Amino acid sequence: MTTRRDRLRAATVKEISETARRILVEEGADAVTLRAIARAMGMTAPALYRYFGSHGELLRHLVGDIFTELTEDLREAMHGVEGGDLSGKFLAVSRRFRLWAFAHPREYALLFGTPVRGTLYEEEDSDFAEECARKFGWTFMALFMELWRKRPFPVPSDDEIDPALYAQLVRYREEDLRVELPIGVIQQFLACWIRLQGSVSLEVFGHLDFALDDAAPMFELMLSEIAGVLGLTYTPPKGEG
C-alpha cells in the first residue's frame, strides 16, 4: 500500500517529466535543463535532485516515458486489427509509427536522432530507459515472430550470409533477443526495420524535401515492397485506390 508521501513524490516526478517534455517540444532537447525545469515549476534546481540524481537521469526518465507512450500507441493500432490479419497488423503498426513521428517530431528526434549526451546506454542507471526501448522494439519483433511461425517467408541460409554479418547477428540473437530463430530471420527482421525506420527518419528530418513535397506515396511503396518480401498482402490506406 502506497503512503501519502509516496503519492506526492510520484505526482511531483510526473510533473517534472511533463514539464521537461513541454520544454523539449517548445524549445528543443538542448533547452531541457534542470534549471529551466525548476524555473517553470517554481522550484529551485537543487530541489530537483531529491527526485533525479542528475540531468542525465532526468533525460533517461523522459526517454523511457516517451518510448512507453509510443509503444502503447502502436499496440493500440495493432489491437484495432482483427487477430488473424497479420498483413493488416503490419501495415497498421508501420503507418502508426510514421504518424506518431510526424505528430511528435522533437520527441522522435530525442529517441531516434543524434543521441543526447547522458541519455540511453551511457550510464549505469539507464535500466528504465533501456527497458522501455526494449518493449518498443518487441512490438515489431513479436509481430515478426508471429508471422514467421504462422506463415514462414523465404530467408537466406547460414552459408549465404556474409560471415562478418553472421557473427554480429548471432551476438544480437543470443545476447539481446534471446530467441530461437534462424539467423536468416534475424537478418530479414533487421533489414525490414532499417528500411521502415530509415524511411520515417529521412522524411521527419526533412532529408527528402529535395525531391518530394509529399513522401507518403514513397512510404507506401516501401511498405508494399516489404510486404512482398514477407509474403503479406499489401492494401492501400483507406480512401486510396
UniProtKB/TrEMBL annotation:
Residues 33-52 bind DNA. GO terms for molecular function: DNA-binding transcription factor activity; transcription cis-regulatory region binding. The keyword Ubl conjugation does not apply. InterPro entries: Homeodomain-like_sf, HTH-type_TetR-like_transc_reg, HTH_TetR, MT1864/Rv1816-like_C, Tet_transcr_reg_TetR-rel_C_sf. Keywords: DNA-binding, Transcription, Transcription regulation. It comes from the Bacteria. PROSITE patterns: HTH_TETR_2 (PS50977). Residues 10-70 form the HTH tetR-type domain. The keyword Secreted does not apply. PANTHER family: HTH-TYPE TRANSCRIPTIONAL REGULATOR RUTR (PTHR30055), HTH-TYPE TRANSCRIPTIONAL REGULATOR RV1816 (PTHR30055:SF243). This is TetR family transcriptional regulator. It comes from Actinomadura litoris. The lineage of its organism: Bacteria, Bacillati, Actinomycetota, Actinomycetes, Streptosporangiales.
